[in-house]
Structure formats: structure tokens, C-alpha cells
Amino acid sequence: xxxxxxxxxxxxxxxxxxxxxxxxxxxxxxxxxxxxxxxxxxxxxxxxxxxxxxxxxxxxxxxxxxxxxxxxxxxxxxxxxxxxxxxxxxxxxxxxxxxxxxxxxxxxxxxxxxxxxxxxxxxxxxxxxxxxxxxxxxxxxxxxxxxxxxxxxxxxxxxxxxxxxxxxxxxxxxxxxxxxxxxxxxxxxxxxxxxx
Length: 196
Known about the structure:
Elements: E1 4-8, H1 17-22, H2 26-35, E2 39-41, H3 53-63, E3 71-75, H4 77-88, E4 93-97, H5 107-112, H6 121-127, E5 131-136, H7 144-154, E6 158-163, H8 175-195
Parallel strand pairs: 1-2, 1-3, 3-4, 4-5, 5-6
Helix pairs in contact: 2-8, 3-4, 4-6
């Protein structure tokens, strides 16, 4: 059975699957994961503008088929959803891209439901077989200080990767290759540890 990778986009990605695939790195990552033998799952999210936790978490679990053997990749508000998902259910791996832990002073973010209580960082770390976080130092939507705060809260278990010239990961031809190489490396490392 192919390793499942569930890609959760940021909010605002309304429309068809083809338009979602053309946004940011999503389609290129899906295509690359699939070409390497992964079961890559990418779908337009319900409630795409508000990205409410009460809608997104059930869809990640049932609609995208995320389970304890899946690698969950979340970008922006998708990273907030991935964090809340991992509080409740285990995953094989958790990859956070442009992650944040508060509403950033935005009314829409506040209404999403992700930030109305503290994150349970210990449980998130315990429920993730491996944890990776990508941060862009020049992100104009999520301040780098916030992204670093997420990494600090996750502690030593997170493989934190900060790009000094990176933005909000809207594009970048080389990013999907770096992403899949990172996931493959962590999966190989986990398999080696399990076999030992």
C-alpha cells in the first residue's frame, strides 16, 4: 500500500481542483509525490474562505482519508488545521508550512475556531511520528517571530527549516522537491528505527 500524504491548503482557495493545483506549490507537490509512488490527496476544502475548524477537521479525516499512517502537510491556515488535527488524532508525520498559533489580529482567523484556546503542544508532538516545520523569514502574512514561536513550542522534536529569503510559500519551483526529499528522509529514518 502506498504511503498516504494529505495536503491541506491555506484558506481562500475556492474553486475547482484544477485551480487549486495551479495555486502555490500544491499541484506540483501532489504531482511529485504521486510520481514517487505516494498516495497524494489534495482536494478543494469545504468552507474555503473561513476555514472553520468544525468543518475542516472532519473533512481532513473523512473526506481526505487522513489516518494514523498518513503524513499530513498543512500550509498557512492548513497548518493551523493540521496542528488541531494532531491534537486529536495520531499521524505518521506532520509537516507545517508557514505555521502560526494565534489569530494574527485578523477577525476571520479569530472566527475559524483554531485560536480560541491554547494548543496542546505536548500532545501534538506525541501524536506525530515526525514533525517538520518550514518557515520563511520574509513572510509578509505570518511574521517570522510567530513561526519561530511555534517551533519553540514544539521543542526539540521538530525539524525546523527556515529560509532566510523565503516568503509565504506561494511559489518556488524547488520547494516541492525539497518537501518530498524531507518527507522521504523522515520516513526512511522512522523505518530504520522501527527495524532496529
